Amino acid sequence: MKLFIYVLGILILTLGISFTIQSDLGTSPFDALLVGLSIHVGFTVGTWEIIIAFILIGCNSLLKRQKPEVLGLLTAVITGISIDMWLFLLETLHTPELLYSKVVYFGLGLIVIGLGTAIYLHTNFAPIPVDRLTLIIHELTRTNIFLSRSIIYLIFLVLAMVFKGPIGIGTLLIVCLSGLILNYFMSFTKKVLEQAS
Questions:
Q1: Number of domains making up the chain
Q2: DSSP at 44
Q3: Using CA atoms, how far apart are residues 91 and 18, in angstroms rounded to an integer?
Q4: Are 120 and 76 in contact (CB under 8 A)?
Q5: What keywords would UniProt list here (predicted)?
Q6: 38 domain-assigned
Q7: What's residue 145's pLDDT?
């Protein structure tokens, strides 16, 4: 059951990511980097998800001076495959061209990302490497989680700009609103999952 909820959460999360990418209004700094690399270097967005996760697992291992968290790679592989699958399906079904449809896609994406992340996090199954890096920076710098996350977002934002990823008004909205949306869905999904078990 735990594995099913974990995979379901990732499938919902990646659908949300794909909606924001398709909206063309801007994505999270991390997703903007993946799209930029895909367009200007090659490979799919999902493949870059796996490659960057592999690099982050290595960095996390060095920073913590411990064995690499291989389970994080499992999450990255499932996430990468799911992003490519959803992007293919969305491109096949409908690509938003008018502003209102782009806004609808982006809004849906923002909400669906929050829901998927909340479901996935409740399983506490395999860490996403970027989330682990946030906690490591938090430990090493003795700052709060918000500042640690902001440092990572800034690094990915600079890299996304270098690789000309889709940075826009949506990027700013994701950075500002994703925490609030996640916070709402964390309590909502906890009640639903507790009732289901």
A1: 1
A2: -
A3: 10
A4: no
A5: Membrane, Transmembrane, Transmembrane helix
A6: yes
A7: 67
Range of the domain at 59: 2-192
Residues 22, 110: contact at Cβ < 8 Å? no
- Is the pLDDT at 39 greater than 90? The verdict is yes
Residue 197 counted as domain residue: no
Please give the full DSSP string across 105-131, using - where no structure is assigned.
HHHHHHHHHHHHHHHHHHHT-S--HHH
Percent of the chain scoring above 90 in pLDDT: 49
What tokens were used for 17? 């990511």
- The stretch 86-91 carries a mean pLDDT of 94
**Alpha carbon of residue 15 to chain centroid:** 10
Amino acid at 30: F
Q: Is residue 155 part of a domain?
A: yes
Q: 99-120 burial by CB neighbour count: b if 16+ within 10 A, else e?
A: eeebeebbbbbbbbbbbbbbbb
Rounded to two decimals, the pTM is: 0.86
For 113, residues 6+ apart whose C-beta sits below 8 A from its C-beta are 13, 16, 17, 20, 174, 178, 181
Cα–Cα distance measured from residue 184 to residue 5, given in angstroms and rounded to the nearest whole number: 18
As given in the structure block, the two tokens for residue 182 are 């996640």
- Give the mean pLDDT of 96-120: 92
Q: Which has more confidence, 12 or 68?
A: 12
Contact 33, 153 (CB under 8 A): no
